[in-house]
Input
Amino acid sequence: MSTDRELVDAVLANRAGAFERLVREYQGLVWHIVQRMVRQPEDARELCQETFLRVHRTLHQYRYDAALKSWIGRVAYSIALRHLEKRRIEIAETSAEDDDIGPLDRIDDGFDLEAASADAELARHLRSAIETLPPLQRTIVTLYHLDELPLADISVITGLAIGTIKSHLFRTRLQLRQVLESRLGAIA
Output
């Protein structure tokens, strides 16, 4: 089962083991998205199960206009987002400064998150700083930098425009840089 279409067709045809293969293939992605949003392991496990139940019930609606990975990620993100909204947890930080950031500024702030995570002490502080981010920023920065998903896939998963994602990445990297500089001094 190498392609999305083959896997979806097998699941929809109720072939033995097909849905289990789908779960095995995408459970890591679903866990990462839900856990990064929710942070509570018990809730995350329940929401992951809910995600795969929804995928199973709605797979016939998948139209192949995005990768299956992105579609399933979108389902997981939506379920986690609704969970946070029900609990009235702030999903993202907003700032009046956001209006002052021009389109070119939203692309890159010069902070190399991957290089920062290479140093063990810096990586520990970076992980700690990421954990303090609101769910949306934490999810976007980790999907982009740690899972190395392209912006287009993150857009499908979150339902946000690519420009909005770039803006979140810019602001989040800037915030992380400030946190790390306050803890460790200047960062190259």
The chain has two domains: 4-86, 98-184.
